[in-house]
Write a structure and sequence with these properties.
The structure is a single chain. The chain is an alpha+beta fold. The chain has a single domain, classed as Structural Genomics Hypothetical 15.5 Kd Protein In mrcA-pckA Intergenic Region, Chain A, CATH 3.10.290.30. About 25% of the residues lie in helices and about 30% in strands. The chain has four helices and eight strands. Strands 5-4-3-6-7-1-2-8 form an eight-stranded mixed β-sheet. A hairpin with a 4-residue loop joins strand 6 and strand 7. It comes from Tangfeifania diversioriginum. This is PRiA4b ORF-3-like protein. InterPro entries: MM3350-like_sf, Plasmid_pRiA4b_Orf3-like.
Length: about 170
Amino acid sequence: MIYHFKITSQDSKNFHFEVELDGKHSFSDFHSVIQKSLGYETYQLASFFILNGSRKKIKEISMLDLGINNGVYYIMQKTKLADLLKTEGQKLIYTFDFFNDRSLFVELTGIIMEKNLKEPFVTLKQGDAPVQVLGEEPEPKEATRLQEEEVFMDFGVVEDYDELFGEMEDF
């Protein structure tokens, strides 16, 4: 069974992303295709949240095994899409920046019962995806200055080497 998802962002109005996954794929597979397709760093924490009709979060599918108070919890790697997604129109939130409470809105727009899919498949990618973490992109002048400082930190000043090792002669 193939699930078709439409993904949008409140931060970037021109952004529109659609992807298809098989019901046997895990939420970790879904997370990976989002991360890779949008150029996000994979080490950042993220979670999916299933919403009810009032758009309240009712279930979290986390990257980490939280195991809080022996309650019911779902882990991306162990939870298949078909385990929790049953009807077209279901809405989810994919939170990719917990510190700034930034998310992508996900809607299950179609379920095709008769077919299967081996790999996740991006069907549409339009516009600019929101940056993964606010403030992570330094301005171009700042980036150049930081790069120059990094060079000095790596190699030091040439005169310092002369003092330590003496002047070297060419052969």
